[in-house]
Amino acid sequence: MRIKLILFTILSLTTNSARSQTDDISRLMTRRYLSCLDIIYNVRFLIPEYHQKGATDTLNAIVQYWENNCGSSEELTRVKILLAIEQNSFSENIYNTSIIDHLIEYKNQNTTIPLLYGKMHHHYNWHFNFAASDSLKVFTKKLAKELLRTTNVEPIERFFLHFYSNGIDTAFNMMKTEALHGTHLRDLYLIEVNKLVNKPQAHIAYLAGAWIPEGNLALVGTHPFLGFRIGFKHRQLTTDVCLGFKFGKSPNQYKVFYKDSLWNTNHFFGGYIGLDAGYELIKTEKHGLAIIGGIAYNGFDALKDGNNDCEEDISKSINSLNLNLGIGYKYYPTHWNYFGVEAKYNYLNYQNPGGSDLSGNAITINLIYGFSSNRYAINRLRALNYNH
Questions:
Q1: Are the beta carbons of 219 and 358 closer than 8 angstroms?
Q2: What are phi and psi of 40, to 5 degrees?
């Protein structure tokens, strides 16, 4: 028992000594630094409190202190706009070009499945206290609803009241009418939309049509053509790698010289691999007219196993460089996909020494379904309720 008592006494004295040292050190911490995180945490409670008291001067001073010490943010901009509307002092000078990012950020915070965030213009967004943030969000939503019901406001003010009372779709629909014409906000919105729809995009297209030879090459006949393109689209310019096939037996026999023998054949299976490009000379929201062209390696198998009763394998291809030029039309159901038709003239130079003369060029006519994609741009445009 005495040993236990001694140990307990020693432990108590040690603990008390440590606590005493901690208290002494705490009293030394007299220099105070109020960080931006502390300010943000406090103003989220202070603003609703002083607004309820009707202390307008103090309320405005709190907002100014917040801005001076922490800079611009979505929350700060939202509060400034709503208080300015309430105090009949609203001006578009309240916000700068970052307002579009702030609108997207607010929408993401109030969307079940968030879309892509815009650029973050504040350095404290990572610190997120739910109780404080919810307190301010509830306050601004309630204030926006009250102002929307009781205040005779300008269209630009009505936009923000709808938006911050969670009538986000209603607010963005105003962008598509003349209600906000001439406002800085709508100008910034249209600049952002135009920038996004013109960002470089991945491009894919499927082709189906006909390969139609002319001149002596017409001997091998017209053949179906299937193809696939993948590349990039930027503004009116599209650049793709294209892979295609033409197939089906030739309607006529033609001669091929192979291994000291002249063979009669109607075998035909051709390929196309090359670089295709197109530039839209005329482009409207739904229609496009483009000049198109490309350079490729083009050929076809003229002999293949099974053409003759020969024990050894036989195979011969006839190939040529392909330079092509033409015109294409596109119909855009949306900005991101299209249906089209194109016609190209293909300059060829097939050589078949010792066999049938296959000199001549070819016309290709294709129906096309294509689409382009930039995931960042698509998500950001959706966040702005732009659906074209």
A1: yes
A2: -60, -45
What is the SS3 assignment for 238?
A: strand
CB contact at 8 A, 315 and 329: no
Cα–Cα distances in angstroms (integers) from residue 193 to residues 188, 218, 384, in the given order? 9, 50, 8
Residue 78 lies in a domain: yes
- CATH of residue 214's domain is 2.40.160.20
pTM greater than 0.85: no
**Contact of 123 with 131, CB cutoff 8 Å:** no
CA distances from 268 to 158, 174, 217, 250, 294 (A): 69, 60, 12, 6, 23
Domain endpoint, select from 166, 197, 228? 197
Q: What is the dihedral of CA 6, 12, 18, 22, to 10 degrees?
A: -170
Nearest-angstrom CA–CA distance, 371 and 247 = 26
Q: Do 209 and 283 fall within a single domain?
A: yes
Count CA atoms within 13 Å of residue 165 on its CB side. 18
Domain extent at residue 97: 36-197
pLDDT digits (tens, 9 = 90+) for 342-382: 999 999 999 999 999 999 999 999 999 999 989 899 889 98
Question: Do 359 and 222 sit in the same domain of this protein?
Answer: yes
